[in-house]
C-alpha cells in the first residue's frame, strides 16, 4: 500500500480528489505540482506541507516562492520541476494527473526510479505507450490506472490467469452532452454546451474530449497499451448512466463488469491501496435506486473523433502522437472560441494526413510528431 505520494497536477479535478483520498487514508504528501494556479497551490501547500511545490509557469512560481517563504516547502518553476517531483526518494507513488504530453517525461522519470505510477494522464500511453510499458518492465515499476474505465478493467482482470483468456475489453462511454443529436444539431454547439457533461465533473479539456468522443478513442489506445491487446480486442459501448465503468469478456462467454457510482475517488483510492481495498466514506451504490442500465453502439458518423483514434491505433508508430497533439491544439482553440465544434475533428484529420508516421519511434520521434501536428493545426 502507498504511504507517501507526489501529485503531478494537484490543483485539477483528479489532483484535488486525490488529496481528499490521501487525507482519508492518512498518506503523506511529498510534492505537489500545477501549471499556474497560485492561490490553490498555496492553500494545498499550507494544508499538506509537502517538501516540494512546483508551478511550471515560472512567473507564477516566483510569486509562490514569496507566498510560501514562511514554510519549509521548496518551490520550483518550469517543466523540469515535474521531473524532480517525480523522482523524490520518499514518494513511493507518483500520481500523474496533469493533462497532455507534459506528463510523459516525468512519468518516465518515475518509472526509472521504480515508483508506483497511479496513471491518470492518458496522453502518456497514447503517444508513447510501448516505450512507457517497456520501461516499466525494465525497471520494475508498477502502473495502476486511475481512469475509471481502465481501473474497472484492471479490477475485472484480477482473477485472469492468462491474458489469452480475454476475448475483448469493453469500454463504456456516457456519450457526452450531445448524445442522440444529429450532425446538424451538434455543429451548432458552443463551448458552454460542450462543457456540460451529464455525469462527471472534470477539467475543460477532457470534458470537450468527452463531447467529441475523442476521450473514448484515446482510452481505446490506452487500453491497447496497458493490456497489450490489438485494436480488434478493444471495443466501445455507450452507457449513459455511468454505473458500469467497463467490462471484460472472456473466451468462455463470461463477462465481468465493475459497477459503482460516478465518483473518481473510488479508482483513485484503489490505485493507492492496491492490492488491498481501503474503506470509503462515499455513499455506496444502491442497485435498487439505480435507473435502468442501457447500452448502445457509438455513432461514429456524428462523432468522427472516435474513428480517427481507431485509425491511428491501427496504424501505430507516431500516428497516435500526431492524433493527440493535433487534438490538444484544436481543443485549445475551441475553448478559446476561435473555432467551431466540428473544426476539432477536421483539424485533427488534416494533421493526420499531413504529418508522416514513423514506425518503431524513439522518444525524440514521438516528441517531433507531436510538435509537427500542433504546427499543422496552427497553420505554422
From TrEMBL:
Domain of life: Bacteria
UniProt cofactor(s): Mg(2+); Mn(2+)
Catalytic activity from the UniProt record: 2-C-methyl-D-erythritol 4-phosphate + NADP(+) = 1-deoxy-D-xylulose 5-phosphate + NADPH + H(+)
Binding residues for Mn(2+): 147, 149, 219
Biological process, per Gene Ontology: isopentenyl diphosphate biosynthetic process, methylerythritol 4-phosphate pathway involved in terpenoid biosynthetic process
Enzyme Commission number: 1.1.1.267
Pathway field: Isoprenoid biosynthesis; isopentenyl diphosphate biosynthesis via DXP pathway; isopentenyl diphosphate from 1-deoxy-D-xylulose 5-phosphate: step 1/6
Keywords noted in UniProt: Isoprene biosynthesis, Magnesium, Manganese, Metal-binding, NADP, Oxidoreductase
Domain 1-deoxy-D-xylulose 5-phosphate reductoisomerase C-terminal: 143-227
Residues noted as binding 1-deoxy-D-xylulose 5-phosphate in the record, renumbered to the chain: 122, 148-149, 174, 197, 215-216, 219
Pfam families recorded: DXP_redisom_C (PF08436), DXP_reductoisom (PF02670), DXPR_C (PF13288)
The keyword Hydrolase is assigned to this record: no
Domain 1-deoxy-D-xylulose 5-phosphate reductoisomerase N-terminal: from-to ranges: 5-129
Every DXP reductoisomerase C-terminal domain range: 259-375
Protein task: Catalyzes the NADPH-dependent rearrangement and reduction of 1-deoxy-D-xylulose-5-phosphate (DXP) to 2-C-methyl-D-erythritol 4-phosphate (MEP).
This protein's name: 1-deoxy-D-xylulose 5-phosphate reductoisomerase
Organism placement in taxonomy: Bacteria, Bacillati, Bacillota, Clostridia, Eubacteriales
Amino acid at each position: 500500500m502507498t504511504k507517501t505520494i507526489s501529485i503531478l497536477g494537484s490543483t485539477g479535478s483528479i489532483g484535488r480528489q486525490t488529496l481528499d483520498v490521501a487525507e482519508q487514508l492518512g498518506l503523506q504528501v511529498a510534492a505537489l505540482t500545477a501549471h499556474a494556479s497560485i492561490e490553490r497551490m498555496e492553500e494545498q501547500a499550507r494544508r499538506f506541507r509537502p517538501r516540494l511545490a512546483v508551478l511550471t509557469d515560472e512567473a507564477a512560481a516566483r510569486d509562490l516562492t514569496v507566498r510560501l517563504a514562511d514554510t519549509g516547502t521548496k518551490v520550483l518553476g518550469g517543466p523540469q520541476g515535474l521531473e524532480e517531483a517525480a523522482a523524490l526518494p520518499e514518494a513511493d507513488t507518483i500520481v500523474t494527473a496533469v493533462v497532455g504530453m507534459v506528463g510523459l517525461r516525468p512519468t518516465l522519470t518515475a518509472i526509472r526510479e521504480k515508483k508506483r505510477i497511479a496513471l491518470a494522464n492518458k496522453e502518456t500511453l497514447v503517444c508513447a505507450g510501448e516505450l512507457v510499458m517497456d520501461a516499466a518492465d525494465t525497471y520494475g515499476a508498477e502502473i495502476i490506472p486511475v481512469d475509471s474505465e481502465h481501473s474497472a478493467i484492471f479490477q475485472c482482470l484480477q482473477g485472469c490467469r492468462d491474458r489469452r483468456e480475454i476475448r475483448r475489453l469493453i469500454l463504456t462511454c456516457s456519450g457526452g452532452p450531445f448524445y442522440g443529436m444529429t450532425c446538424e444539431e451538434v455543429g451548432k454547439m458552443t463551448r458552454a454546451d460542450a462543457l456540460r457533461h451529464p455525469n462527471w465533473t472534470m477539467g475543460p479539456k477532457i470534458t470537450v474530449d468527452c463531447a467529441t468522443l475523442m476521450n473514448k478513442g484515446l482510452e481505446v489506445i490506452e487500453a491497447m497499451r496497458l493490456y497489450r491487446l490489438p485494436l480488434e480486442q478493444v471495443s466501445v459501448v455507450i452507457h449513459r448512466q455511468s454505473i458500469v465503468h467497463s467490462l471484460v469478456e472472456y473466451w468462455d462467454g463470461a463477462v465481468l463488469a465493475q459497477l459503482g457510482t460516478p465518483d473518481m475517488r473510488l479508482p483513485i483510492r484503489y490505485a493507492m491501496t492496491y492490492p488491498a481495498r481501503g474503506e470509503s466514506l462515499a455513499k455506496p451504490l444502491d442497485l435498487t435506486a439505480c435507473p435502468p442500465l442501457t447500452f448502445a453502439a457509438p455513432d461514429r458518423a456524428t462523432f468522427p473523433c472516435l474513428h480517427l483514434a481507431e485509425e491511428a491505433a491501427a496504424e501505430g508508430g507516431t500516428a497516435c502522437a500526431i492524433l493527440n497533439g493535433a487534438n490538444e491544439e484544436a481543443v485549445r482553440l475551441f475553448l478559446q472560441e476561435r473555432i467551431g465544434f466540428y473544426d476539432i475533428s477536421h483539424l485533427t484529420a488534416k494533421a493526420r494526413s499531413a504529418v508522416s508516421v514513423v514506425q518503431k519511434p524513439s522518444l525524440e520521434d514521438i516528441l517531433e510528431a507531436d510538435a509537427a501536428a500542433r504546427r499543422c493545426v496552427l497553420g505554422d
